Amino acid sequence: MQFAIINAYAAGVQLRYRYRVYPTPGQQIALAQAFGCARVAFNDAIAAREQARRNGLPCPTDTQLSKALTSVKKTPQRAWLAEVSSVVLQQALADANTAYRNFFASLTGKRKGPKLGAPRFRSRRDNQQAIRFTRNARFEVIAGGKLRLPKIGEVKVCWSRSLPSEPSSVTVVTDAAGRYFASFVVETTDQPLPEIDAEVGVDLGLATFAVLSNGKTITSPKFLRRAERKLRKAQQALSRKGKGSNNRAKARLRVAKAHAKVADSRRDFAHKQSTAIVRENQAVYVEDLCVKGLARTRLAKSVHDAGWGMFLRLVQEKAARYGRTVVKVDRWFPSSQTCSTCARVDGKKPLSVREWTCPCGAVHDRDLNAAINILAAGRAERRNACGETVSLPA
Predict the structure, then answer these.
(1) What is the pLDDT of residue 12?
(2) Is beta strand 13-22 parallel, antiparallel or unpaired with respect to 2-8?
(3) Which entry of 199, 287, 305, 317 is annotated as an active-site residue?
(4) Cα–Cα distance between 223 and 293 in angstroms, integer?
(5) Rounded CA separation 99/228 (Å)
(6) Is 203 a residue of the active site?
(7) What is the reported pLDDT for 385?
(8) Which of 95, 203, 305, 317 is flagged as catalytic?
(9) Among the options 95, 199, 317, 367, which is catalytic?
(10) What whole-number distance in Å separates Cα of residue 273 and Cα of residue 276?
């Protein structure tokens, strides 16, 4: 089971709980048909908007697109669209509308984050296919623990834990490895964890995943590096298979499963470590790393393998969920150059230098010293945000 925060309200938090499902061969065919129909509805909406833009006409509204979809289902050429739940098609139109809304909001600067490109057509060769059912579709979890989906049937679900509330929607997803998942949107009202006095600074690295200011060290598992030999052999076997052959399809599936195992292991590691840090500390101080920039350097493979971005996102989400505080320290703060004893800035040091001695006589481990400095800078930043005048301790 995996969860992610997708929205927050004053009354509670909306979470997405994901479980593995095991459809029968017949249900897999029905799901493939539903994936294809949703993809066609989405692409038709994108094509209609693009055609209107090229002709200088007003963009068709959601109502017009919905009526056009209803009409086209009655034609002999697209009669097969009526064989799947209408909610699946309407949700595909809603996804197209959301994609355009986010695109325009990104262009005008209303949407934070990097600029988004125009919505693109979906392909049957995409790594992930998905359909969504809302309450209008009348999906339900029946007494035997199976998930009943309209026009698909009762699908077996591997329940790792019970749902905290009645789901408002469910998304059925299949990935490149041929696995199926059901992702439920539920609302929870989690109580904040009891307040504690502990605070911690976290210094992320590659040789060691993280060093905490309290002296704890988290070893880097390096999931991709450990699986490189297996991945290389699987990729070599795939490259030797003839294009379009059944053996190539089997080899492609083996490669996808190997990559999925690496990604799942990394995600599980990030969840466990972030949960432990949030549970054991009232405030967490981290560097505001530019992960995207570091991923363009010669250390790109190691940076991606570490999964810093996912780890930091999970720490922030869980802290918001359980009443903890996360403060990001300026990425240009010289945490590795500053002596945590006398606050002297000793200059840049190559990555090969793991220990150094300050003129004041203090001997520092590079990562532990950086974590202690991040803790001090984060505390000062947090108090300044509360209106107090605070400087780093000398």
Answers:
(1) 66
(2) antiparallel
(3) 287
(4) 22
(5) 36
(6) yes
(7) 60
(8) 203
(9) 367
(10) 5
Say if residues 122 and 42 touch (Cβ distance below 8 Å). Answer: yes
Strands 217-219 and 13-22: unpaired
Instruction: Map tokens 């057509």 to a residue.
Output: 121
The per-residue pLDDT for 2 is 55
Which residue stretches of the chain have pLDDT < 70? 1-12, 385-394
Cα end-to-end distance, the chain, whole Å: 47
Q: Is the dihedral of CA 196, 274, 314, 183 positive or negative?
A: negative
pLDDT at 388: 55
Pairing of strands 147-149, 199-204: unpaired
CB 274 within 8 Å of CB 314: yes
How many Å apart are CA 185 and CA 169, to the nearest integer?
6
Residue whose entry in the numeric block shows the structure tokens 């979809």: 69
**Token pair in block for residue 71:** 């009409």
Question: Which string of DSSP letters, residue by residue, matches 35-91?
Answer: HHHHHHHHHHHHHHHHHHHHTTPPPPPHHHHHHHHHHHTTSSTTGGGGGS-HHHHHH
Task: Count other Cβ atoms within 10 Å, centred on residue 207.
Answer: 11
The answer to whether 288 is a known catalytic residue is: no
**Amino acid identity at 332:** W
